[in-house]
UniProtKB/TrEMBL annotation, chain A:
Pfam families: FAS1_DH_region. It comes from the Bacteria. This is UPF0336 protein B5D80_16630. It comes from Micromonospora wenchangensis. One of its GO terms (molecular function) is (3R)-hydroxyacyl-[acyl-carrier-protein] dehydratase activity. Belongs to the UPF0336 family.
TrEMBL record, chain B:
InterPro entries: Fatty_acid_synthase (IPR003965), HotDog_dom_sf (IPR029069), MaoC-like_dom (IPR002539). GO terms for molecular function: fatty acid synthase activity. GO terms for cellular component: fatty acid synthase complex. This is Dehydratase. Residues 6-93 form the MaoC-like domain. Belongs to the enoyl-CoA hydratase/isomerase family. GO terms for biological process: fatty acid biosynthetic process.
Length: 148, 130
């Protein structure tokens, strides 16, 4: 499926703030079997210099996947979500996400290409606190599989 | 940095728990009916679950839960998880690619399931502990 390359460079309005909860971090850490006390015990996190429990490295995807619906649901771009496969995923952290963070996402379309009938869409999501402090930048490449 | 192989057993129950914790309820991760309808051999693990397990290996190697400064993978092969008590197994290995003057260690990571690589271009940069 071919996606309109003129969308490259498009930036979407900031998403509503996501409140990072201590129990959500604990639940996520438990689901992936991450037992380090800093994910569960605020005192252990404070001993490492963090204000509250620390999220595992892939936790931000919970926030960015929801935020990127902005792009996937953009009727002008016209992504068929039933044909979407996750291609690449990358995170560049300024600091780890911690409980108590209020995070805002700004989505940008970085790349659009097509090859062998499939469309490729790379998005960058800049995750910052509501005060504008950068936390993590997240890149996702989605493959929109062509009709076979 | 001691980079001993990490092994993770993955069962259907793990996928259900990850679906709930992550909010990714795509039925290909819990319904054989849906998975086979879209041409998969059966229910597959969330790519982000596999990446999360690799993240565990990386933070354990680094010796700190907050050590990762960059982390990226390409999903190349699905991890099929059978509906039994054994599930499947993912093994994660890494080699040190570079140690920078600023105290960063770059790792090239390999994740395998059933002898096949399930990720490519899996790389992590960690702040070296101590």
């Amino acid at each position: 499926m071919s996606l309109d390359p003129s969308f490259v460079g498009r930036t979407y309005p900031p998403t509503a703030p996501y409140q990072v909860g201590r129990e959500k971090i604990r639940e996520f850490a438990t689901a992936i079997g991450a037992t380090d006390p800093a994910h569960h015990d605020p005192a252990a996190a404070r001993a490492l210099g963090h204000p509250d429990v620390v999220a595992p490295p892939t936790f931000p995807v919970l926030i960015t996947m929801a935020a990127s619906q902005q792009i996937v649901d953009d009727p002008a771009l016209g992504v068929d979500y039933s044909r979407v496969v996750h291609g690449d995923q990358r995170f560049a952290y300024t600091r780890p996400v911690v409980a108590g963070d209020e995070l805002v996402c700004v989505n940008t379309i970085e790349e659009i290409s097509s090859r062998s009938g499939h469309g490729f869409l790379t998005t960058r999501t800049d995750v910052t606190t509501v005060a504008g402090e950068p936390v993590v930048a997240v890149w996702s490449k989605l493959v929109v599989r062509g009709e076979s | 940095m001691e980079l001993s192989t990490r092994t993770f057993r993955v069962t259907r129950a793990d996928l259900v728990r990850y679906a709930g914790a992550s909010g990714d309820f795509n039925p290909i991760h819990w319904s054989d009916r849906t998975a086979t309808k879209v041409g998969l051999p059966g229910v597959i693990a969330h790519g982000m679950f596999t990446m999360a397990l690799v993240g565990r290996a990386v933070t354990e190697w680094a010796g700190a839960p907050d050590a990762v400064v960059e982390f990226g993978v390409r999903f190349t092969r699905p991890v099929v998880v059978p509906d039994d008590d054994e599930g499947t197994e993912i093994t994660v290995d890494a080699v040190v690619k570079e140690v920078t003057e600023t105290g960063l260690t770059r790792l090239d990571v390999t994740a395998r399931c059933g002898g096949e690589k399930v990720l490519s271009q899996a790389r992590a940069t960690v702040r070296t502990a101590g």
